[in-house]
Amino acid sequence: MYVNRTISSLRVAATVGLLLWVARSFGGTAQPTTQPSTNNPHRSADACLHCHAGEGDRVHPIRSHDVDTMCLTCHDGEHARRERHPIGRSFASDQVTLPAGWPALDGKLGCATCHTLRHACSRPGTRPPATPAFVRDYDGVDLAGFCARCHVDDQTHHRFNPHAVQYVNDRVNESACGFCHLPGITEHERLSRSGRAHLRTGEPTLCLSCHRHHVDYFSPGHVGARVSPKIKAALTTSDEARNLPLAAGETVTCSTCHNPHQRGVFVESSVLARGGTTPERQTGALAMRGFGKTICGACHEP
Fold first, then answer.
1. Which helix H or strand E contains 54, and what residues bound it?
2. Rounded to an integer, what is the distance from CA 124 to the centroid of its chain?
3. Cα(20)–Cα(210) distance, rounded to whole angstroms?
């Protein structure tokens, strides 16, 4: 029962993730850590062969079973923005319904289910400002209404906190891990800080998908800031401060100050367990890796 309830909540969270992704695509603030580097072939009259096989002005259609694979060759988070909403999920559920006229190969969600790809191919010119990602039947205004096209509104839908259900009945709840991490984390990576967290997207983008109201009262802000040699020295000389991890390039990231993991996920002797919290306490230790208000002094002199 617990697992079923968790999976149900994850589906709801996916809805929220889609809504937030659409918000970012249409003017939101969260940005990926890796900037897209691929030339955009959509709405480009001479870029058909970027996706289609063919020669000259003649192109061959893409097989329905190959559409998702083709999209993911660019939309992998490295070459072009990765979409937050999962694909491959079945519509055989009482929590979702397939809108009339929306394609779902083998009854499963695919890229073309929500994106009208023909608009990207047949209308060279400026991308429409309301739906630059070619989102199907979206008016550019009612995000919740768009999500409700598929997701059924009922009493089981509620806000889901993946931080609070990571460790249940003395074991790690793998379904909660999958909310932020891709499969493939080894046992060794769970015992020591390897720098390979297998996150689904860049850390600030991932965290801000839910924590939209995070406020940094200092300018220019902590996230992405490169620490000075003096601060770096402070982080390496203090036993407690040594547990504040920096991102690539000696920069501050969300998990530098916040431990997103629940107590019990990692063994107590691991640095990864520093500041872990319990389901009953989602503030305090969770907020600042166990330091509380004194965390500023770990980097900055009083």
1. strand 54-55
2. 31
3. 8
Give me the count of residues in the chain: 302
Tokens of 34: 């890796």
Share of the chain above pLDDT 70, in %: 76
Contacts 24+ apart (CB under 8 A), 237-243: 238/298, 240/291, 240/298, 241/298, 241/299, 242/271, 243/271, 243/274, 243/275, 243/289
Tokens 């402070």 sit at which residue?
A: 234
* Tally of CA atoms within 13 A in the half-sphere of 3 that contains its CB: 6
| Residue 89, CB-side half-sphere exposure with 13 Å CA sphere | 18
Q: Among residues 26, 52, 172, which one has the least CA distance to residue 118?
A: 52
CA separation for the pair 175, 162 (Å, rounded): 9
Which residue, among 216, 218, 226, 227, has the nearest Cα to 258 in the 3D structure?
A: 216
CA atoms within 13 A on the CB side of 250: 12
Give yes or no for a cis peptide into 279 (omega within 30° of 0).
no
Coil, strand or helix at 215 = coil
For residue 53, which of 44, 38, 63 has the smallest C-alpha distance?
Answer: 63
| pTM score | 0.54
Tell the burial category of 191 from Cβ atoms under 10 Å away from its Cβ (0-12, 13-18, 19+). middle
Query: Please, what is the end-to-end C-alpha distance for the chain in angstroms?
Result: 50
Find, among 173, 183, 179, the residue nearest to 160 by Cα.
179
pLDDT band at residue 17 using 50, 70 and 90 as cut-offs: very low
104 pLDDT band (50/70/90 cuts)? Answer: very high
Q: What is the pLDDT of residue 178?
A: 82
What is the rounded CA–CA span in Å between residue 140 and residue 138? 6
Residue 115 structure tokens: 């994106």
Q: How many CB atoms lie within 10 A of CB 266?
A: 21
